[in-house]
Amino acid sequence: MNNIVEIIKLFSDQTRLRILNILYDSEHCVCDLEAVLEMTQPNISKHIKKMSDLNILKKRKQSYWIYYSLNNEIFEKYDFVESILRDIRKEELFQNDLKKLKKYLDSPKSCHI
């Protein structure tokens, strides 16, 4: 069962918000997050684990890759989650992350090509 206090605490961390922003539209692997956030895999994995433990993220394994996405059940349970994620998209930092993601996914460096 999700603990609302822990979920609210989760939103106090900018890195987690940035990850959630990236995952809002579609699933991604950690290498996508590394490229956009310019952080190391262990650092991102620490945040992914925390969010997965709270059942905010789902994962899907395909070959060697694990893809993470938002667990839509969290939106149904807590209305404020989707509201926060929509609102942060108005901020420049989060808009820039989405631009970097698009550029990365279109590049030869992307693991999706």
TrEMBL record:
Keyword list, A-Z: DNA-binding, Transcription, Transcription regulation
Pfam family, one: HTH_5
PROSITE patterns, alphabetized: HTH_ARSR_2
Occurrences of domain HTH arsR-type (ranges): 1-92
Keyword Transcription: yes
UniProt xrefs under PANTHER family: ARSENICAL RESISTANCE OPERON REPRESSOR, TRANSCRIPTIONAL REGULATOR, ARSR FAMILY
Metal-binding found in the keyword field: no
Native source species: Geotoga petraea
Protein name: Transcriptional regulator, ArsR family
Example GO molecular function: DNA-binding transcription factor activity
